[in-house]
Amino acid sequence: MGDAATSDERTVRACLRLMSVPSGAFDLEILSGGASGSHVYGVTLPERACVLKVTLATAEPHMLERSRREVAFYSQMVGAAPVRVPDVLGSYEDTAAGVCLLLKRYEAARPARDWTAGDFETLARQLADLHSAYWASPPERLAWLDLPPDEDAALDTTHARGEWAARAGQAKFRSVLNRSAVGQVNALLDRIADMNAAIRSTPSTLCHGDCHVGNILTDVAGVLVWSDWQEVRWGPGPEDLSFLLQRAEFDGATPCRELLISAYHAQLRRHVDVSRRDVQRVMDACELRTRLVAWPMYLAGASEDAMRAMLARIAALAHTLSLGGV
Questions:
Q1: Are 168 and 177 in contact (CB under 8 A)?
Q2: Across 75-173, where does the E strand assignment appear?
Q3: pLDDT tens-digit profile of 109-125?
Q4: What CATH number is given to the structural domain containing 178?
Q5: Sorting pLDDT into bands at 50, 70 and 90, what band is 37?
């Protein structure tokens, strides 16, 4: 324990030095990370409380790419983002040290299950402000915002098929995730290209990329602060709202979908011409793709009822999009 603490202290002190931040004495709290080469520390300096995000040069390439993307966002776009983001106190990156990012520390927002309808509506309207600012108007010379190439989808669906097969092999799911259900899930995975076409039916914009309540902080006045921009990208705006709703429900909240979609669309329409029907269709396609491709690995510890609800939602979305059902 002592060696680990000493190692963390050395890492923090080295990062502060690279960012030209006077260190002196500081209090250190390990917030997350370590095994993957990515760390998040709470660092209390004499004059302020901070969060230090460190991704070592030895970390996996995708971890370094995400960290560099976040630093790029804060250095190139923070002044142009129409939502409140953390104050940046320093950053540094090179091939030897990796990536360091020092931010002002804020309070975490309440858990999603404790949010009111008004809280969610405020978040949806702010999300619409973010999207409308860049709707069909990509920032110039910011190629790092581009989406990954479509060929990654083949790898994603192959992995998803394996995860669904693994869930079907769990005794608790055998009655609900039977051979017929797995076959229908695989048939829908064959239709990912159709979902992608629906998703691209509206113009792209600046997306947070990991929009959920766990990435929302608050300042001393209770103002929402949008954090964790490692997945920021150029893509379909309604996907952010779709993921916000999925994660909130998974975390035990019961947000009113119709209210949030209406609030988001009304705010969006103040600046761009898009129909609510188009927003809904993109959200449905995004949600179906996410439930098919991204969610199965997280269902290993779920209950039979949770799996049944997942399959029912997949079937409903597939029917709405005229893609069949489960």
A1: yes
A2: 88-94, 98-104, 107-108
A3: 999 999 999 999 999 99
A4: 3.90.1200.10
A5: low
Alpha-carbon 291 to chain mean position: 14
Instruction: Cite the DSSP H helix spans in 134-229.
Output: 152-168, 179-189, 192-199
Place of tokens 């691209």: 200
Domain boundary among 105, 128, 147: 105
Provide the token pair at 243: 């993921």
Q: Which of 81, 105, 129 is a domain's end point? A: 105
Structure tokens given for 17:
């030095």
Whether residue 109 contacts residue 211, with contact meaning beta carbons closer than 8 Å, is answered with no
For residue 95, is it within any domain? yes
| Domain extent at residue 242 | 112-320
- Predicted TM-score (pTM) above 0.85: yes
Give pLDDT tens digits for 228-246.
999 999 899 999 999 999 9
Three-state secondary structure call for residue 30: strand
Distance CA 323, CA 287 (A): 14
Is 242 within 8 Å of 199 (Cβ atoms)? no
CATH code (residue 28): 3.30.200.20
Closest Cα to residue 127, out of 200, 236, 221, 220? Answer: 236
Bridge partners, residue 215, by sequence: none
